[in-house]
Write a structure and sequence with these properties.
Blueprint: H1 19-30, E1 35-37, E2 40-42, H2 56-63, E3 66-67, H3 70-80, H4 86-89, E4 93-97, H5 99-107, E5 113-118, H6 127-143, E6 147-151, H7 153-159, H8 165-180, E7 189-193, H9 194-199, H10 204-215, H11 219-226, H12 234-245, H13 253-256, H14 260-263, E8 268-273, H15 277-286, E9 296-300, E10 304-305, E11 308-312, H16 328-336, H17 346-352, H18 360-368, H19 372-384, H20 389-412, H21 416-422, H22 436-460
Helix pairs in contact: 3-5, 7-8, 8-21, 10-12, 12-15, 16-20, 18-20
């Protein structure tokens, strides 16, 4: 194929402004690479201007993570004695950093903890938000380990000009109750909002790690990782240090004890969607400089938008998402309008079959239908043309209605009192927890902090 340099300038044209160069420029203008950051997710656009599906293989190469392959899954099952979660079996949880090292430590009886989170940007979560949380619950049950869930209300306030602190905090409370309704074990789970922890007198150790991380992170690193410019506010540049601090057990002496040397050796495993990886690349770069282990990470794919697999569900776009607050009727209506991989007519569909690789209802079934054999039956029938698009949408609707309906029932049991207990800084119960002496020291430390805070408030009065 000819390029600009191969073709002489046409008469009357400025240098390099030939018909061919203009065509190439137009192609480049239409095409766009995929964008995957904590703030923007898009599959990109091809040379014809058509949206492209997210390329997860390319992300593994770009981010430098490792694929979760069959040998690792076999080892996971052997070490844990549990069948891998359907998201692992189907490649929906697909990539990792140092998961093999976590399995090594678990085999040796060395305790670790889980850390995941959510940025509360709306008052209602959608089913895509539950994917990392459902998988995290599975990991908590399988490994019997403590879990820390971080609600980054401060980050959403920093990054979203239209949101006030009051708005974000209200979202945080509602989101916390939704997350708790996934089914986490209260005895092993601590949920916290950044602003509450920092302002509530329990963040002395946490803030120490924020400062240590912040000192080791340069502005150029943040610019390069997140694409920040001079237009981003200074709080956004500092926030990655906050998100990193949660990956260190020493940030939570009320959970892990006050023996800093011992606690620093407790590993962390972070289940998250792949767009959160940039935060933890920064964290992993600096952790050894702070005397800590690099946190391990396990990545999930995005639940596609109802409009297609080139983007993920978005809380800011009601027509692209199935919300946990949606009624059965709303779910049915939304799935009915979802992007289909079926053919234009029933006759053509029976002749050449449907395309499960782009069919959104089928993609949803891969996330939510537990039965592998039934999923395979549906796939084969659809691709052979034996199942029509309407039948696929009915199967998807039924599964999503059951999933959201189960959530609604659990959500009724999450009272404000239950939420407050999950969000109360306290000792969690787990294998390898601190001994009584350490727990007493941690309690004494918390009492002292609260007494100092009470004295401060008295002086202000």
């Amino acid at each position: 194929m000819a390029t600009v340099s191969d073709v002489k300038d046409e008469p009357g044209q400025p240098p390099a402004l030939t018909s061919l160069s203009l065509a190439e420029a137009a192609q480049q203008a239409r095409s766009r690479e995929q964008i995957i950051t904590p703030f923007d997710v898009s599959g990109g656009v091809d040379e014809q201007g058509k949206p492209k599906a997210i390329d997860y293989d390319k992300l593994v190469d770009t981010f430098g993570s490792q694929r979760i392959d069959k040998p690792l899954l076999e080892r996971f099952e052997k070490v844990t004695g549990h069948k891998p979660h359907r998201m692992l079996r189907r490649g929906l949880v697909f990539s990792h950093r140092d998961l093999n090292l976590i399995l090594d430590k678990y085999e040796k009886g060395i305790p670790f903890f889980l850390y995941t989170g959510r940025g509360p940007s709306s008052d209602s979560m959608h089913v895509g938000h539950t994917i990392p949380f459902e998988f995290t619950k599975y990991l908590q049950d399988v490994f019997d380990v403590p879990l820390v869930i971080m609600l980054t209300d401060d980050e959403k306030f920093f990054h979203t000009p239209k949101l006030s602190l009051k708005d974000v905090y209200e979202f945080t409370i509602r989101n916390a109750m939704d997350i708790i309704a996934v089914g986490f074990d209260m005895k092993k789970t601590f949920v916290f909002a950044d602003t509450e922890l920092v302002d509530g007198g329990h963040a002395s150790a946490f803030n120490t790690n924020v400062r240590e991380m912040g000192k080791r992170t340069t502005i150029n690193q943040i610019r390069g990782t997140f694409g920040f410019t001079d237009s981003n506010n200074i709080a956004e540049f500092n926030f990655p240090a906050m998100q990193s601090a949660t990956a260190f057990a020493t940030s939570f002496p009320f959970i892990f004890g006050t023996d800093a040397k011992k606690v620093a050796k407790i590993p962390c495993l972070i289940p998250c969607a792949i767009d959160q990886d940039p935060y933890f690349r920064q964290c992993r770069d600096n952790a050894p400089k702070m005397g800590y282990l690099k946190p391990a990470i396990i990545h999930s794919v995005f639940l596609p938008s109802l409009r297609g697999s080139e983007s993920k569900m978005s809380a800011s776009d009601a027509d692209s998402s199935i919300f946990l607050s949606d009624t059965d009727k709303q779910i049915q209506k939304k799935v009915g309008k979802a992007f289909s991989g079926g053919q234009d007519t029933a006759e053509l569909h029976r002749e050449i079959g449907g395309r499960t690789t782009v069919d959104v209802p089928f993609q949803y079934l891969t996330f939510f239908l537990e039965d592998d054999d039934e999923l395979e039956r549906i796939r084969v029938a659809y691709e052979k043309g034996e199942m029509q698009s309407g039948e696929m949408k009915m199967a998807c609707t039924k599964e999503l209605q059951a999933y959201v309906g189960g959530f609604r029932e659990r959500r009724k049991a999450v009272t404000d009192e239950v939420r407050k207990e999950f969000m109360r800084p306290r000792q969690l119960v787990f294998r390898g927890m601190p001994d009584e002496k350490q727990r007493q020291e941690a309690r004494s430390r918390r009492i002292k902090i609260l007494e100092e805070e009470l004295e401060r408030l008295k002086r202000e009065d």
